[in-house]
Structures are given as C-alpha cells and as structure tokens.
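Cross-check.
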Amino acid sequence: MRILQAISGQNNGGAEAFFFRLAVALKEEGIEQEILVRKNLRWGNALRSEKISVQELPFKGSIDGLTRLRFRQAIQLFKPDIVLTWMSRATSFCPKSKELDTPFVHVARLGGYYNIKYYKNCDYLIANTEKIFDYIRTSGISRKKIKYLPNFVDENKTEPTDKSVYSTPPDAKVILTLSRFHPNKGLEILLEAMTNLQDVYLWLAGDGESWDDLEKLSVKLGVRPRVRFLGWHDDPSPLLSSCDLVICPSRIEPLGNVILDAWAHKVPVVATTSDGPQSLIKNKKNGILVPVDDSKTLSLAIKNLLRDPKMIRRLIFEGKRTFDSNFTKGIVVNKYRKFFKEVLA
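Predicted model, tokenized:
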C-alpha cells in the first residue's frame, strides 16, 4: 500500500502532532509513504529523522500555482493508492484523480468543524470525533463516505520531571494543561480559577498568540508566583507523570487530545462541557465535567477533587480503562489500516 499525505498546518498543534504520530506508526506497519508539508516548519526535519520521504511546499493562498504543480507532480511520480490530506488548505490543493493519469482515492481528515466546500471533491472523509461525523453528515455528505477514526496518543515511558526544574516545591499540588495559547482554549478562566486555589501550582505547557496576554493576566490576578509557562513540549510524558490533575478549560474543543494524554498517564481530568470533552467523559466516572467559562465552578471542582483520594482512584482506573479500550496506538492504527483496505477494495 502506498499513501501520500499532505498537511499545511503550523509548528505546534494537536492535529499536527497526531499527523506526525500517525505517519511514524504507518511506517512501522510497512506502508510506503510520501509526505508533503508546508515549507519552513519543523515537521520536515522530524519526518526525515524517521526515514520518511518528505517534500516541503509553500502551501500559500489559492493563487499558489507552485504548490498545485508540485502536488500534481508528487502524485504522478509516487503513484499512491491513497492521498490523505489534513484540514482544509492541503485538501484544496489536491488535484482530482480524473485530471491525472494516476488513479488514487482521495481521503481527507477533519479534526474540526471546517467548511465542507473544501471537501466536495474527496472520495471519503475521516472525522476524529462522532460529533464531527454528524456535522459532516448534516452538511450533505453521504454517510457511506464518512468514517469515524479517533486519535491515539503515546503511553507513559519516561520518568517524572523534577518539580524543582520549574521552581515548584516538591510537595506542591500541580495542575497541568497542554494547549495552544488561544482564546478558544479558555486559559484565562483557568487563571481566574487559580485565585481560589491557594498553594496549588499551575503548569501551562504550550505556545501561541495569547502568551503575553496570559502572563499579564496572571500578574493582574496575583497568581503569577504559582504559574509556570513551560513552552511547547513535543513529549509531555514527564510533565504528565509529575502532575496531580490535568485541566482542559476550553471554550471550543472538538476533541481534546490532552484528555487522552491524561488517561494514558493515569492522571485525573477536569474539563469543560465543550464538544470533545463532553463526548469523551462520563461525569464523575472517568473525569469531571464543569460548565464552560465558569471559573468558580472550575476552581471548586479542582479543590474538591484534590481532597478526595477515593474519587481520584476511580477516575484514574476508569480513565485508563477507557483509553485501553479505544485510544491506544495499536487499536487506532488497526482501524486506519482496515479503513484503507476498505476504500481500495
């Protein structure tokens, strides 16, 4: 089986991180791949380090003729069975199979509620949540052309981080979030919640446009001495192994990879009722759900959970069981392989 993947994306993000994990996993399965990525992103070198063939394209706006030409040439030279495009921009640059002398099946993966107009020429669509599946279906796409395939995350294989590395007392309670720093992620609500969580330290692992605003807000709220801005971590395992709780305070969250990370590392989760967390979490069974944009309820949920070892043990057990049943690398990669075989049959 030969697969050409294409992604524009950015340096940091959940979709990009999963794209990389999947590309490596498919290589390990013996699937031949050619990868097209946006020029000057770190993913080109990361893929080369895994001995995966990669080309870097501009992936600019709709008038970017060079990317269209090189995309066509890549397909004609590699002759893939499947072209798998990620998100809207890469999908819009993919030529139609009938325009080339190389037949292929075009599959696009959606990790959000993207404009369906960019996907009308695709043969099949992958939705990484059931709600995105429903969104695609109600947009006029036949159910037969849509497949729900979840993400997977890596399991814990590293030692915990020494808290002193981040100027955190060894006996301090630590709450962690892994996130792009963007208004959709609701991180300012988490900072507001910190005003009611005395002696708790917050580790913010991520990067993005809201960094400066979040730092200023933490100072204004008087919580900056207990907040650590850690930057983006490609491997969050050491952080996850060191924290007491994982928090997902998002306003808009189609999936919530951080929840899968927490379950895989046996860490309890508190999350908002945005789409992704609400579809993953059964409240007070494998996680705690709180309303969106409600810092008081969020702080109370965190405070109560930190004081309830019995509930913590239950959430850890049920979270890991949910992960092991649905979101391991082996389970998800097998689903992808089966789907690829089905669309080629």
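DSSP finds 13 helices and 13 strands in the chain. The two ends are 12 Å apart (CA to CA). Passed to J.P. for a second look.
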